[in-house]
Amino acid sequence: MEKIDILSLDLDELAEILTSIGEKKFRAKQIFQWLHVKRVLDFDKMTDISVQLRRSLNEIFCINRLFVQKRLESAIDNTVKYLYRLSDGNFVETVLMEYSYGYSICVSTQVGCKMGCNFCASTIAGYVRSLTASEILMQIYEAERDSGKSVSGVVLMGIGEPLDNFDNVMKFLHLLSHKGGNDMSLRHVSLSTCGIVPRIYELADMKLQLTLSVSLHCADNEGRSEIMPVNKKYDLPSLIEACRYYIDKTGRRVTFEYAVIDDVNSSSADADKLAKLLRGMNCHVNLIPVNKVRERNYHTARSGVAEFAKQLGRRGINATVRRTLGSDIEAACGQLRRDAAQQNEKNGGADT
Ligand code: SAH
Q: Can you list the domains of the chain with their CATH numbers?
């Protein structure tokens, strides 16, 4: 029988399994605490659990750890980028960033991505599968263990489309914020999506306190379809309508991500369209200089981002320019995984 991934279970699910083998319910609470608070990832080290129960735990459950395949530390700003190897040999990336208020971590939600945004390295390397809830959670636990730092904020902006892995991502959020476990407020979590409209409605109805980030990148419907194929399925007007619904339902401000690309989306006409699109909305625009991806010719002059921010300001739209972190370690997601996957292929698929 295949073992159950215990780190993807919430307290109730764990209690149900334990009571079904004749154990008392409170054991679930103890074990959940060992895993999610004390971070002891070995049943044999759970000292207040009887030897007999520990044996049963080892028989029924597995503890799916991630292995640090590569660890790159920025010499400029302390950003650390992890390339993790999953138990099936696939790779994902996680970035730990230092801010004035603490540490924030950017996690992946899938191995690769099928959304096809043409400026993004994650999608160029292809889609393999979605991550389980524990594989998302463990990116944080393993980074905290490795770095000795405590993470105070999480962004779902790594490899993958979180709303294309909806159930596992919701489970992850539930585990991350569980009172009997890690207990992080979802106010410290941002979820970034390229715009899977029906899922935005679903998320809004759940009324979680997280911040929704929408990767907009273009305020013209046709132009957006050219760089983001998802826009052909869920067009710009329907995306903006979903965002309005989200704001209404949750009372939370939406963030729009906009990677400024020279000659693509940063003209004064683009600023006009963006201002018109977002006027009156409870939102915030985050401008990002496009990260260079080897396969693409896109680039942004630093002055281009500042200039675009100014143009938006003149049109009454507040925009901030995102700090670029880890520029010396290719912190743009997807690049390390792609290299590792290509290396693996060269070696005939063997783990390296
Ligand atoms: N799939 C989700 C989350 C992962 S991408 C989404 O699309 O939002 C995280 C963010 O990085 C998105 O805003 C994405 O559009 C942006 N991004 C991807 N490649 C980029 C690049 N080369 N330069 C700047 N931002 C990029």
A: 4-62 (1.10.150.530), 67-346 (3.20.20.70)
